Recover the amino acids of this structure.
């Protein structure tokens, strides 16, 4: 079975979180205590790796308080052809693991519900109860062991059902659940990492048919031996009670595939014995890195093994990392991303990473990033730039964001987005904002990108605005007439009634047409004499002559005709911006825009 996504209800801060995807990799991002570790814990509960305690139950909202009574994790799985034939199930299957007040976990599948209520939950029943049910429904079995009884009763219940709902899962299906192996970056425990990897390998080894045969033989021998040991006790009961003819003691024996511990011993080339916990964090990091790299090879080998027709194809392995970049420097963070990519590329392997690392967040497709955060009630909610219903648009959105230079971490975390018209604005706005506000755009929480005449960039701005993100679109006043995409009807189509709040027509308040025209003639002449000198010098009148028409175009032609440097438009305004010294040197209209921008970001 291949897990594609899962939903959680009633587990820690995850009161009701839907559709966390499982990709290669999935990145769980978000602030501290936002629910990343809880999401990994819920995944472990679904796959049978974790148990739920009373402390894991979500607190109820409202005045009543207390904890919820039910905890459930529901997974959407895809079955391979072998599993469909083996269990008689469809390609897509929904499985849940849940527990109520008794804290006893139960596996159930969504599908046909047995008409008889006693067949709907068989997991807690003992062998005598199962035998009684089999007899009542006319089910005859040559060797009525518990697994055989459960499988037969589940099949009977499926055949005698008339509705849909949750019912008991076939016991053998649990063996096809994905294997979960976990790495905790903060623990710096290579032995735990090795144990986690070997546990997956050991479970696969125990599932092999020849191994299972030997285990069943041992279980049978042990059961017979225990029966012989119990016979004197049974005979004693018969002796004490004259109305009892015979007593039989049936012992159920199971040798579980449990890897108890692993130990890691190091010896230096000099022969010196080394205890890893006494070698410092640097050594532990290096060994952990080697373990992670070795894990990739083990997973690839496991995924590529031959299919045993009795056991079935290899099951999915999900590698879960909880902040793997903790305690690692920038270089090793990049190394971890490479390891994760190699693991995720292996067949039947998926990777889920809970992290704060911008390297990891920026290293995947935006569709594979899940942002978890707490709402006002301190309940985890999922925020994604897109939804399952718009997968193609999400792909297009990610392409646009990459094209305009917006990384995933910026899309997820920045407080405000400023879209400017072209290369000139993208070059000089950071300089002018820093001078005006006394801080950089980044420090203010503002992400800047240039539209470049691209309608897709406007769609990105619209999408961010639609999803409640703060966006400002800064456009030259004359662009409305010069460019179709910046005309009022098109802006209204993108931003609706917020058009006037989102868009700023630069120069309109100063009765000029474009950004370059906001700077006075004296500033232009002073800059030209320093950056592009000529024999006769530049005067304010040289620049005033170009006002009333396309100012930037006229100035660019003039400077190129009379200057050896032949500057372009972005370079012209850059030379202006870097020579300004005081906040008041920034034109007043721009200072007002920057103040509004800081307010949005705040």
């Amino acid at each position: 079975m291949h897990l594609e996504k899962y939903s959680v209800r009633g587990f820690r801060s995850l009161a009701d979180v839907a559709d966390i995807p499982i990709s290669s990799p999935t990145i769980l991002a978000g602030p501290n205590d936002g629910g990343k570790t809880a999401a990994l814990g819920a995944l472990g509960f679904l796959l049978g790796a974790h148990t739920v305690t009373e402390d894991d139950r979500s607190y109820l909202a409202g005045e009543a308080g207390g904890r919820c009574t039910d905890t459930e994790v529901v997974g959407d799985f895809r079955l391979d052809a072998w599993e469909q034939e083996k269990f008689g199930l469809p390609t897509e299957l929904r499985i849940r693991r849940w527990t109520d007040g008794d804290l006893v976990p139960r596996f159930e599948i969504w599908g046909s519900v047995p008409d008889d209520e006693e067949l709907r939950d068989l997991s807690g029943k003992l062998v005598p109860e199962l035998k009684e049910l089999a007899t009542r429904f006319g089910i005859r079995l040559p060797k009525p062991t518990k697994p055989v009884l459960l499988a037969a009763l589940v099949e009977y219940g499926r055949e005698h059902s008339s509705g849909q709902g949750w019912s008991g899962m076939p016991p053998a299906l649990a063996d096809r659940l994905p294997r979960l192996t976990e790495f905790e970056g903060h623990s710096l425990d290579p032995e735990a990492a090795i144990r986690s990897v070997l546990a997956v390998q050991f479970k696969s080894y125990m599932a092999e048919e020849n191994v299972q045969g030997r285990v069943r033989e041992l279980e049978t021998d042990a059961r017979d031996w225990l029966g012989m040991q119990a016979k004197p006790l049974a005979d004693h009961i018969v002796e004490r009670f004259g109305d009892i003819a015979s007593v039989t003691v049936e012992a159920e024996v199971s040798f579980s595939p449990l890897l108890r511990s692993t130990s890691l011993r190091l010896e230096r080339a000099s022969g010196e014995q080394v205890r890893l916990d006494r070698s410092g964090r640097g050594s532990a990091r290096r060994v952990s890195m080697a373990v992670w790299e070795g894990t990739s090879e083990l997973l690839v080998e496991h995924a590529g093994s031959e299919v045993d027709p009795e056991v079935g194809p290899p099951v999915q392995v999900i590698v879960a990392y909880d902040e793997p970049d903790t305690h690692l420097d920038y270089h090793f963070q990049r190394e971890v991303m490479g390891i994760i990519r190699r693991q995720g590329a292996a067949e039947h392997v998926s990777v889920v990473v809970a992290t704060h690392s911008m390297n990891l967040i920026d290293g995947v497709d935006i569709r594979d990033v899940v942002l978890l955060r707490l709402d006002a009630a301190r309940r985890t909610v999922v925020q994604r730039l897109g939804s399952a219903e718009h997968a193609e648009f999400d792909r297009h959105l990610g392409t646009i964001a990459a094209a305009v230079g917006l990384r995933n971490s910026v899309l997820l975390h920045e407080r405000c987005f400023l879209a400017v018209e072209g290369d000139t604005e993208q070059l000089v706005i950071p300089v002018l904002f820093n001078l005006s506000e006394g801080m950089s755009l980044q420090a203010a929480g503002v992400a800047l990108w240039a539209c470049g005449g691209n309608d897709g960039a406007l769609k990105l701005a619209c999408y961010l605005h639609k999803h409640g993100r703060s966006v400002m679109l800064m456009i030259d006043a004359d662009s409305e007439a010069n460019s179709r995409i910046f005309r009022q009807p098109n802006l209204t189509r993108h931003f609706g009634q917020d058009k006037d709040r989102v868009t700023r027509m630069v120069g309109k308040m100063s009765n000029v047409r474009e950004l370059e025209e906001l700077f006075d003639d004296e500033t232009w002449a002073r800059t030209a004499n320093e950056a592009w000198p000529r024999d006769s010098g530049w005067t304010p009148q040289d620049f005033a002559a170009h006002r009333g028409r396309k100012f930037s175009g006229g100035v660019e032609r003039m400077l190129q005709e009379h200057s050896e440097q032949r500057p372009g438009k972005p370079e012209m305004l850059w030379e202006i911006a870097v020579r300004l010294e005081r906040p008041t040197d920034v034109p007043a209209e721009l200072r007002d825009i920057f103040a509004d921008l800081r307010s949005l970001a705040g």
